[in-house]
Amino acid sequence: MKIFEIITETEARVLERGEVVTLARGGHVTPLARDTLKERQVVVVNEELSNEADEILAPEADVRSVAVAADHNGAPLARMLERYLRGRGLAVQAIAADHPATWEYPDAAEAVAVLVARGEVDAGIVVDGAGIGSAIAANKVKGVRAAMATTETMARHAREDNGANVLTLGSSLLTEDEARAIVVTWLTTAMRELRYIRRLAKIRSLERRQ
């Protein structure tokens, strides 16, 4: 990543759209440059701008709304989770199959991932047989970081270290109690450390280069 002592309007204009740059400790971004950086979706990462980086890249820390979908294998577990999350006071957008005969895990994953990427919900959960296929499919949607978890430890790392905004679960691998514990851990874990957010910035830059 490029390192700047100061970023002016002129410099901001020549940065690539979606680029990730680092502002040196004690560095400065001029007011006009800030507007241009925002317009060009340039990510500036440093200690002074960590809050801005959080807002752009880190998953929502205070999750209030969740989209949930599943294929036919994951449907019973997904319905249980929908009821459970509503009982915890969350707004749940349950996505039903448009065409049940052909609805498969890529369809469920896409439906949830698109809502997350657009910012229409704070987080997403997809359930299929093993959770792996849904993670692969959801990660094809720009701006989505999907992770499959089979334990609370994996869920915590997925959120805290890797900033996952979509969680995928395997109904054949988990009991209802295990699934509930994993979901709660994932939803209540925040991503706060700047070093982890810097890595998300690199992932975003990689995504935009493709």
How is this fold's topology laid out?
Elements: E1 2-7, H1 9-14, E2 20-29, H2 31-39, E3 43-45, H3 50-57, E4 65-70, H4 75-87, E5 91-94, H5 105-118, E6 123-128, H6 132-138, E7 146-148, H7 152-160, E8 166-170, H8 176-188, H9 194-209
Parallel strand pairs: 1-2, 2-3, 4-5, 4-6, 6-8, 7-8
Helix pairs in contact: 3-9, 4-8, 5-6, 7-8
Structural account:
The structure is a single chain. By secondary structure, the protein is an alpha/beta fold. It folds into 2 domains: 74 residues, no CATH class; 124 residues, Sugar-phosphate isomerase, RpiB/LacA/LacB (Ribose 5-phosphate Isomerase B, Chain: A). Helix content is 45%, strand content 20%. It is built from 9 helices and 8 strands. The longest helix has 16 residues. It is elongated. The two termini are 17 Å apart.
Task: Provide the descriptors you would attach to this structure in a database record.
alpha/beta, 210 residues, three-stranded parallel beta sheet, five-stranded parallel beta sheet, 2 domains, 9 helices, Ribose 5-phosphate Isomerase B, Chain: A
